[in-house]
Design brief:
Layout lengths: L39 H14 L7 E7 L5 E7 L2 E3 L2 E7 L3 H8 L2 E8 L4 E11 L2 H8 L4 H9 L10 H14 L9 E15 L7 E12 L5 E7 L3
Helix pairs in contact: 4-5
Length: 234
């Protein structure tokens, strides 16, 4: 890669559009305090359902960010499998990199990006494992090949080739037939939000950003969480 006169690396893109020239004007919608929900969970539910109704590609895909003991962050895309007043739920291999990092630092961040709607949702909070009963119920609702795959893949570990996975699938399919149990290393996580941000693209890069922060008091007398909503500069 050639080094330019400025001392920075440049990529020559003959016949291609320069990355610096890629721009889009966001003009689909707006996000105001008056039109948004006071409860961020209700705002999230509305936006998620609108993303599903708009048939955006994989509206349930979210990025999960964790931090290792050496303070290096890492991200990956997973699929949300549930949400309610208790938090956001997904399922994975507990021995994976994200599982190991969550074991050492149980705080994480999630992000949804619905490009076609020009919207982003960011969520932060404490992560905990869901109950064994909840993990069992979801595991047994999965297709058979996905249940076998949970046994066959030593997620995040180095393997010599894809043949290892194929051999493992054959091994566990023969062992469990049509009734594979949930692996002890596989189950659900739930992030309990204490911070939400909703981003709506706007013209001239003057985007709308609303942040919801959980009150230090935690919950109102009736048990409902108390959220402080404020606008952030884009």
């Amino acid at each position: 890669m050639p080094l330019g006169l400025s001392g920075r690396w440049h990529v020559y893109t003959a016949g291609m559009t320069s990355l610096a020239d890629l721009r889009k004007s966001y003009e689909r919608a707006e996000l105001s305090e008056d039109a948004s929900h006071a409860d961020p969970l209700l705002q999230f539910a509305q936006w998620l359902q609108e993303a599903i109704a708009a048939e955006v590609p994989e509206p349930n895909a979210m990025t999960v960010a964790t931090v290792a003991g050496n303070l290096r962050p890492s991200t990956r895309v997973v699929l949300i499998k549930g949400y309610d007043a208790h938090g956001i739920t997904w399922f994975t291999n507990y021995d994976s990199r994200k599982g190991q990092e969550l074991a050492g630092n149980p705080f994480a961040a999630l992000q949804f990006h619905w490009v076609e709607l020009e919207r982003v949702v960011r969520i932060e909070g404490l992560v905990e494992k869901v109950s064994s009963e909840e993990s069992d119920a979801y595991f047994h609702s999965r297709p058979l090949d996905s249940r076998i795959g949970a046994w066959a893949s030593p997620q995040s570990q180095v393997i010599p080739g894809r043949g290892v996975l194929v051999a493992n699938v054959a091994k566990y399919a023969a062992q469990f037939l049509l009734r594979p149990p949930r692996p002890p290393h596989w189950g659900g996580y739930r992030l309990k939000p204490d911070h939400w941000q909703f981003w709506q693209g706007r013209k001239s890069r003057l985007h709308d950003r609303l942040r919801y922060t959980l009150s230090p008091a935690g919950a109102a007398p009736g048990g409902e969480p108390q959220w402080f909503r404020e606008r952030l500069a884009p």
